[in-house]
Amino acid sequence: MSLTLIDRLRVAKEAPVIDVGGGASLLVDRLVGRGYTDLTVLDLSSTALEIARRRLDDTVHVHWLHENLMTWEPQRRYALWHDRAVFHFLTNAGERAKYLTTMRHALSDSGSVIIATFASDGPERCSGLPVARYDAADLERLLDGFTVVESSREEHVTPDGTVQPFTWVAAHRLPVAEVRAAAQGSSTGPRAPAFRKLI
Ligand SMILES: C[S@@+](CC[C@H](N)C(=O)[O-])C[C@H]1O[C@@H](n2cnc3c(N)ncnc32)[C@H](O)[C@@H]1O
Q1: Which residue lies with its CA nearest to atom 7 of ligand 1?
Q2: Sheet holding 107-118, edge to edge
Q3: pLDDT per residue over 9-65, tens digit each?
Q4: Of 97, 107, 117, 176, which is the most buried if we count CB atoms within 10 A?
Q5: Ligand 1 atom with the shortest distance to the CA of 83
Q6: Considering only CA atoms, which residue is closest to atom 13 of ligand 1?
C-alpha cells in the first residue's frame, strides 16, 4: 500500500522522504530499489534501525535517526512524511498534538503525507500496547489545510493469518485549487511537475 500511495502522490526520486517509526520495515529497501536517493528512517528503537541498516548494501546512504517523535526537533524539511502504525500509539490528545506539530514543522510547504493506523474496527492493541483507532474521516480531520488524494481501508493479513484492518490516508499539503491547477498543468510554479496527471 505504501508504494502505491507514494506513486499516487508522484513523489520525485530525489525528494527527501522520511519514514517515521520505520523500524525494521522493508519500505526503505523498496524505495532504494526504486531509485529514491534521499531517505531518512526515524525510530525509537536502535535495534530495529540496526536490522534495517544491516540489510542494505554498504554503498547505500540512508539517514538513520534514533529519535523519539515526542521529543525530536526536525533539522530539515521533507517532501514526504510516511507513517505506518506509529500515530495510533498516541492515545492522548497532548501526544497527538505534539506529533501533528512536529509533522507540520518537518514537512515542506508543498509536501505530502501518508498515515496508516488501525481502523476503527481494528485491533485494540499493537505490539502489546493500547492504540487509538481511526476511520478515514477521523484521519482526514487531522489534516487541516491538506488536500486528501486517497483514503482507503486495507485488511492486512499478518504472517500468522490474523486480519488487521488499517485505515490509510494520503494527502498533499496544498489547497485543493492548487493541486488541481498543478494537475492540469496550468501552474507555472516549481510544484507543477510533481502533481501533473494526479487528479
Ligand atoms: C508497529 S511498528 C511499525 C513499523 C513499520 N512502520 C511498519 O509498518 O512495519 C511501530 C514502530 O514505531 C516505533 N515507534 C513507536 N513510538 C515511537 C516514537 N514515539 N518515536 C519513534 N518511533 C516510535 C517503534 O519502535 C516501532 O518500530
Answers
A1: 25
A2: 63-66, 39-43, 17-20, 78-84, 107-118, 163-172, 147-157
A3: 999 999 999 999 999 999 999 999 999 999 999 999 999 999 999 999 888 999 999
A4: 117
A5: 6
A6: 21
